[in-house]
Amino acid sequence: MPAESIQAITGADTLLSVLSGVGPALREKLAARGLLTLQDLWFHLPRSYEDRTVLTPMSLLRAGVAAQTEGVVELVERSFRGRPVLKVVLADAENQRLTLRFFHFRAQQVAQFSKGTRVRVFGTPRAGQLGLEIVHPSYRILGEGEHALSASLDPVYPEIEGISAGSVRKLVVQALQHLPDEETLELLPQTWLEASKLPSLRQAILVLHHPPHDADVAALQRGLHPAQRRLALEEMLAHQLSLRRQRLALQSEGTLALHGHEVLVKQLEKSLPFALTNAQARVYAQLKTDVCQPKPMLRLVQGDVGSGKTVVAALAALLAVADGRQAALMAPTELLAEQHFNNFKQWLEPLGLQVCWLAGKVTGKARAKALEEVASGAAQVIVGTHALMQESVTFHDLALAIIDEQHRFGVHQRLALREKGRGNIPHQLVMTATPIPRTLAMSAYADLDVSAIDELPPGRTPVTTVVLSSERRPELIERIHIACTEGRQVYWVCTLIDESDEVQAQAAQTTFEALQDALPSVRVGLVHGRLKAADKQATMQAFKTGELDLLVATTVIEVGVDVPNASLMVIENAERLGLSQLHQLRGRVGRGSAASSCVLLYQHPLGQIARQRLDTLRHTNDGFAIAEKDLELRGPGELLGTKQTGLASFRMADLMRDADLLPQVHALADRLLQSAPQRADRIIERWVGGAARYASA
Question: Is 345:355 a contact under the CB 8 Å cutoff?
Answer without folding.
Answer: yes
